[in-house]
Design a protein that fits this description.
The chain has about 425 residues and is mainly beta. It has a single domain (about 5-430), classed as 7 Propeller (Methylamine Dehydrogenase, Chain H). The chain is about 0% helix and about 50% strand. A hairpin with a 3-residue loop joins strand 29 (about 400-410) and strand 30 (about 410-420).
C-alpha cells in the first residue's frame, strides 16, 4: 500500500469526479467585529480553467497557494481530461486575474502514472515558484515525491528528490508542503517508507544558490507506535535554518496524535506530541495540518480533533522558542452552523499585524460540510461560511471546502478549495473582494 496520509486520502476522495478548483480572495479585516461586514464581502465567483485540452475536462482541483503580493498568486493541484490520467497543474494570478492552468511535466518514467497532484507551493517572487507533490506509479500504485521549479514564468520538468538512507525499494514517498525565502532558500516536508515498511517523516532543503539536498528523516515522538505512520503536512520558516513543521502520527492503529518539530541553526530536533484540548477522543483524524511563522515572534498551527464519532472541532497551537504548547479548541462557528457543529482547518497564514486567516470546513444547519474561514485578531477568532456561488447545490450532495490560504501585506488573503454543483460534481470558482 502506498504511503498516503489520512488527510491526503480525504482530499483525493473529496475531489474525485471534480470539475475544478476554487479560489477565494478575502479583504484585509478591520478591528475585531468587522468580520460581519468587510470579512464577508466578495464578488461573484468566477471560474479558474483547467489546462486547455481537446478532451472534456472531467475534474480539477487546487490544494496549495502562495501569494507574493495582492493580486499575484500561484496555485497548484491536479486535473483530469476524459480518458486521461489525473495530472498535476498550476495556475497563476496576475494583476488580480487568474490564467488557465498549465500542466506540470512529471519526472521521466512517470508517464504511466494514474494519479498525480501538487500538494504544496512556495514562491520567492512572482513567476519564480516551487511546487511539491506526488504521483502513483507501478503495479503497487506506490507514491513517489516530486519537485517542480518555475523560473521567470516557465515550469521545468519535475524531478524526484533523493530519499533518506534506508528508504524502501521500490521507493514510496510524498511531499506535502514547501516554504521558500526571497534569497532562494527552500525547504519541503513530507513522508517516506523505510526498508521495514514504516512511514516516517522527511525534510529536504535547497540552500540559496545551491541544488536540493538529500532528504533527512525527522525522528517521530518517543511515544509513537512501532510503525509511527507519521506524516508532516505543514511547514513554515522564519529564516533559513529556522523552520517549524506539523502533522500527525500513530499512537496505535485507531489513535493518532498531532505533532510538531522545529529546526534551529540548521539542526532538526525530534518531533514532539502536541496535546489535544480537553475532551478529545481517540481518532485517526487528529492533526495539526498547517503552520505559519512570523519573522519575529511565535508560530501558529491549526488543525482538528475528534469530540465524538461524528463530530470534529478545529484547534490551534502556538510554537515559541522551540516549544509547542497544548492545543486550544476553536469554538467559534459561523452563523448558520449546525446545532451540533463540526469543524476542521487545513490552512493558516499570519501577518506581522497579528491577524491570521485559517481555512477549512464546517457543518451547516442542514448538516452539510461546507467551506469555512476564520479570522483571528487580538487573540479572538471569528468564523464565517463562504457564500456559495450560483449553481451550487444546497441538497444532499452539497459539499465544499477550503484547502490552503496565503496572505500578503497587512492581511490580503487568497485561499483555494472546491464546491459541488447541483449534480454533485465539484466545480471551480474564483471570488475576490473590491
Amino acid at each position: 500500500m502506498p504511503v498516503l496520509s489520512v488527510l491526503a486520502y480525504k482530499v483525493r476522495a473529496a475531489v474525485a469526479g471534480a470539475v475544478g478548483a476554487l479560489i477565494f480572495i478575502f479583504p484585509a479585516p478591520g478591528p475585531v467585529g468587522a468580520l460581519g461586514d468587510a470579512g464577508l464581502n466578495h464578488h461573484q465567483a468566477t471560474a479558474v480553467q483547467a489546462p486547455d485540452s481537446t478532451r472534456v475536462v472531467r475534474s480539477a482541483g487546487l490544494y496549495a497557494i502562495a501569494c507574493t503580493a495582492a493580486g499575484w498568486c500561484t496555485a497548484g493541484g491536479d486535473y483530469q481530461a476524459a480518458g486521461r490520467r489525473i495530472e498535476p497543474m498550476a495556475a497563476t494570478q496576475s494583476r488580480g486575474r487568474w490564467s488557465r492552468g498549465v500542466p506540470l511535466a512529471l519526472p521521466a518514467g512517470a508517464v504511466a502514472q494514474p494519479y498525480a497532484q501538487v500538494n504544496g507551493v512556495a514562491c520567492r517572487s512572482a513567476g519564480n515558484c516551487v511546487a511539491a507533490g506526488d504521483y502513483e506509479y507501478g503495479k503497487s500504485m506506490s507514491l513517489q515525491a516530486f519537485i517542480a521549479t518555475e523560473y521567470r514564468g516557465k515550469w521545468a520538468r519535475a524531478f524526484t528528490p533523493r530519499l533518506p538512507p534506508g528508504a524502501s525499494a521500490p521507493a514510496s514517498a510524498q511531499l506535502e508542503a514547501v516554504a521558500c525565502a526571497r534569497d532562494g532558500f527552500c525547504a519541503a516536508v513530507g513522508s517516506y517508507q523505510d526498508s521495514s515498511g514504516n512511514a516516517q517523516t522527511m525534510v529536504l532543503t535547497k540552500p540559496a544558490g545551491g541544488p536540493w539536498r538529500r532528504a533527512t528523516e525527522i525522528a517521530s515522538p518517543a511515544n509513537a507506535a512501532a510503525n509511527p505512520d507519521a506524516f508532516m503536512t505543514g511547514i513554515s520558516c522564519s529564516a533559513p535554518g529556522t523552520c517549524a513543521v506539523v502533522g500527525n502520527y500513530s499512537l496505535s492503529p485507531s489513535r493518532f496524535a498531532a505533532m510538531g518539530a522545529v529546526e534551529s541553526r540548521g539542526t532538526w530536533h525530534r518531533a514532539t506530541q502536541i496535546a489535544a484540548p480537553r475532551g478529545a477522543i481517540a481518532s485517526t483524524f487528529t492533526a495539526i495540518t498547517s503552520i505559519s511563522c512570523l519573522a519575529t515572534g511565535p508560530c501558529l498551527g491549526v488543525g482538528q480533533y475528534a469530540v465524538s464519532a461524528t463530530q470534529s472541532r478545529a484547534m490551534a497551537v502556538t510554537e515559541s522558542k522551540g516549544r509547542f504548547g497544548t492545543a486550544v479548541a476553536i469554538t467559534a462557528v459561523p452563523p448558520g452552523a449546525s446545532q451540533h457543529p463540526s469543524s476542521y482547518l487545513q490552512g493558516v497564514s499570519c501577518r506581522a499585524s497579528g491577524i491570521c486567516f485559517a481555512v477549512g470546513g464546517g457543518r451547516n444547519r442542514a448538516g452539510r460540510s461546507v467551506a469555512m474561514y476564520l479570522v483571528r485578531s487580538d487573540g479572538r477568532w471569528q468564523a464565517a461560511f463562504l457564500a456559495a456561488p450560483d449553481g451550487a447545490t444546497a441538497g444532499p450532495r452539497q459539499l465544499s471546502a477550503l484547502q490552503a490560504v496565503s496572505c500578503t501585506g497587512r492581511a490580503r488573503c487568497s485561499a483555494v478549495g472546491y464546491y459541488h454543483d447541483r449534480l454533485g460534481t465539484a466545480r471551480a470558482e474564483a471570488a475576490s473582494t473590491p
